[in-house]
C-alpha cells in the first residue's frame, strides 16, 4: 500500500484493540511515512509469537528506508519482558516505583475483602479510581468514586 491513500477496508471493523494499530498507523501515514499492512505472517515479522496478524501487523517506513514494525500498539523495539510486565497494572506500577517513577497511591486487593478496600480508600482519601489488574481499553474501570457507599456499589 502506498502512502497516498488508505485502503477503505482499514476503516471497517475498527474497534477494541484494533483501534490502537489504526491510530498509530494513521498518524505515521499522515506524517508522510510509508504504511504497509500485513494480512499474514511475513518473513521479516519480529513478533514471531503472534498468530492472528490480520489488520494488526503493519510497518512504517521513512523516506530514508528505515522501517519499523508494529503489532497493534507494540513497536519492534519493545522487549518481550516489558510486554509481560505491562500485562498487569500492579507489576507495571511496581517496576515504575523501583526505577523512581512516581505512581498514584493505592494497593491491590481481592474483591471479597471489601473492608480492606474501603479502609485503603479512606487512608488515601477520596476520590479514588478502581481498576481490574489485567483488563485494558478502560474496561472495568470506575472513576471519581467519592465515598464508601459508591465504592460498595461497584
Brief description of this entry?
The chain is 31% helix and 16% strand. It contains 5 helices and 6 strands; from the N terminus they run αββββαααββα.
Description:
One of its GO terms (molecular function) is ATP binding. The chain has 154 residues and is of the alpha+beta class. The chain has two domains: 8-75, no CATH class; 80-153. 31% of the residues lie in helices and 16% in strands. The chain is built from five helices and six strands. The strands form two sheets. A four-stranded antiparallel sheet has the order 1-2-3-4, with helices on one face. Strands 5-6 form a two-stranded antiparallel sheet.
Record field, number of beta strands: 6
Largest sheet, order of strands side by side? Answer: 1-2-3-4
Ends distance: 46 Å
Number of contiguous helices: 5
Identify low-pLDDT runs: none
Arithmetic mean of pLDDT:
84
The figure for the number of domains is: 2
Helix content: 25-40%
**From the helix content, strand content and strand pairing, which structural class follows?**
alpha+beta
Largest sheet features: 4 strands, antiparallel
How would you describe the shape?
elongated
Amino acid at each position: 500500500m502506498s502512502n497516498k491513500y488508505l485502503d477503505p477496508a482499514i476503516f471497517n471493523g475498527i474497534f477494541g484493540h484494533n483501534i490502537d494499530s489504526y491510530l498509530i498507523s494513521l498518524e505515521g501515514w499522515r506524517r508522510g511515512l510509508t504504511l504497509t499492512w500485513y494480512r499474514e505472517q511475513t518473513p521479516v515479522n519480529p513478533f514471531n509469537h503472534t498468530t492472528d496478524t490480520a489488520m494488526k501487523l503493519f510497518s512504517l517506513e521513512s523516506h530514508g528506508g528505515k522501517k519499523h514494525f508494529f503489532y497493534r500498539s507494540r513497536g519492534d523495539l519493545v522487549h518481550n519482558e516489558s510486554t509481560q510486565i505491562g500485562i498487569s497494572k500492579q507489576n507495571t506500577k511496581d517496576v515504575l516505583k523501583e526505577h523512581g517513577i512516581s505512581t498514584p497511591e493505592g494497593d491491590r486487593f481481592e474483591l471479597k475483602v471489601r473492608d480492606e478496600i474501603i479502609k485503603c480508600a479512606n487512608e488515601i482519601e477520596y476520590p479514588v479510581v478502581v481498576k481490574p489488574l489485567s483488563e485494558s481499553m478502560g474496561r472495568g474501570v470506575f472513576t471519581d468514586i467519592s465515598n464508601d457507599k459508591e465504592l460498595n456499589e461497584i
